[in-house]
Specification:
By secondary structure, the protein is mainly alpha-helical. It has a domain of 115 residues. Helix content is 74%, strand content 0%.
Length: 419
């Protein structure tokens, strides 16, 4: 007489489904709350870890797309050894690198899951809700809202406009797909949602970095998706929408013209303003990199370096006591040298190559990587909370789905027996 097998310590299939649900919850919370996102990420990690197998981890870490983010994290950990700052400052500096560890974990999860599109759908739904809230606050000019920024329910203009840019180009791809399939009602709906988000950027909360990213992604969309006739139509539509926005939105004109006036003011009198400060950040960042070009000043060293450089300065130079040089390459190279910067760019390139395919998932991944690269010319987006997690979550989920499609047999083998 055989004894029936006892159930395992945990139900792997149940935990896998719970991890998928938690990933969707993270995506929904991301545009709204840093605290909720942080809590959900911890819970998601606790649920996912027991489902992992050593062979899966080894497989992802030996690829460029999965291994380079972890290599950058490990370099950040090593950088604590030669940083000439207090231990607490080293830990604060390392905090920006930790999220990179989640990329290969998400690759594993979405190699074996069929629910990746739910993550992107949840993020889009959260951004649509944010759009509605932004429109409501714009109409009511609600001074009673805790954030007190016109038309921005949570966080800030740059973050909100960046979130909408991601959704706009996902919707634009869907609209093209619906057009090709003659599903005109869905096409109109996708275009209407994209135009509503674009209107919010033009009239309510303009992030100037977002405008540069829009231009870059339009070029990418034309190259990936359109032929000659489509490029003409897209160009004409872009010029028309841009002209309407420029003529009808004093706010948009003011935000763009301010860049030029800020630079003129900085050049004439070293005045303290956003553009002048960024010039100072760049000058000092390059000087710091020259002082330690190979392995940098160590993890967590940026605040001390910038603070020391601002002593006795005036104008824009005095404002350069910062923890953020507003450039991702500088933020890594100051701490980890040119070797660290090379690892950063190798990671970006590996992720670009991962999303070479023609499908929606590849397009979403490509948009997120290009948006992060372009945005990181003007900000340290990989180290910023919202933009960094959008990158990690987007690349991780889309990358896992692409890898599953490329090796279905390996994915089926890693999933284990069906429940």
């Amino acid at each position: 007489m055989t004894t029936p097998a006892r159930p395992g310590f945990f139900n792997r299939a149940l935990l896998t489904r719970a991890a998928d649900a938690l990933a969707v919850a993270v995506a929904i919370s991301l545009p709204w709350s840093t605290s909720a996102t942080s809590i959900l990420v911890i819970v998601w990690l606790a649920v996912l870890l027991p489902t992992l197998r050593l062979a899966e981890l080894r497989r992802e870490l030996t690829t460029a797309a999965g291994g380079l983010p972890v290599l950058l994290l490990l370099f950040g950990i090593a950088g604590m050894l030669w940083a000439d700052v207090a231990l607490i400052e080293r830990w604060k500096g390392l905090d920006s690198f930790f999220k990179l560890l989640f990329i290969p974990l998400l690759f594993i999860q979405y190699r074996r899951s069929d629910r990746g599109l739910w993550v992107f759908g949840g993020y889009l739904a959260a951004c649509m809700a944010l759009l509605v809230a932004s429109a409501f606050l714009s109409i009511t000019a609600g001074p009673w809202w805790p954030n007190h920024i016109y038309g921005v329910p949570v966080k800030n203009e740059a973050t909100q406009s960046g979130e909408f840019v991601t959704c706009i180009f996902g919707l634009l791809f869907l609209a093209m797909e619906f057009y090709e399939r003659r599903r005109h009602v869905l096409m109109i709906g996708a275009l209407a949602a994209a135009l509503a988000m674009a209107a919010n950027i033009f009239y309510v909360a303009t992030g100037r970095t977002a405008l540069v990213i829009i231009f870059a992604l339009l070029l990418l969309f034309a190259a990936k998706k359109l032929r000659a006739r489509g490029i003409v139509v897209l160009s004409a539509g872009t010029i028309l929408i841009g002209a309407i926005g420029w003529m009808s939105s004093p706010y948009l004109r003011g935000r763009i013209v301010q860049i030029w006036t800020d630079f003129q003011s900085y050049e004439a009198s070293d005045a303290r303003n956003s553009s002048g400060e960024r010039v100072e950040f760049a000058k000092k960042s390059i000087a710091f990199i020259r002082e330690a070009p190979i392995i940098g000043h160590g993890t967590g060293s940026m605040p001390a370096l910038f603070t020391k450089s601002a002593i006795g300065q005036t104008g824009a130079a005095a404002a350069a006591a910062t923890t953020n040089p507003h450039n991702q390459t500088f933020a890594v190279a100051i701490q980890l040298g040119l070797i660290g910067a090379a690892v950063l760019w190798a990671m970006w390139i590996a992720h670009l190559l991962l999303f070479r395919g023609p499908g929606l998932v590849e397009w979403i991944g490509l948009v997120i990587v290009v948006q992060n690269i372009v945005g990181s010319l003007f900000n340290s987006h990989l180290f910023d909370f919202t933009q960094g997690w959008v990158y990690v979550l987007g690349v991780g989920v889309a990358g896992g789905m692409v890898l599953k499609r490329q090796s279905p047999k390996a994915a089926a083998g890693s999933a284990g027996p069906a429940p």
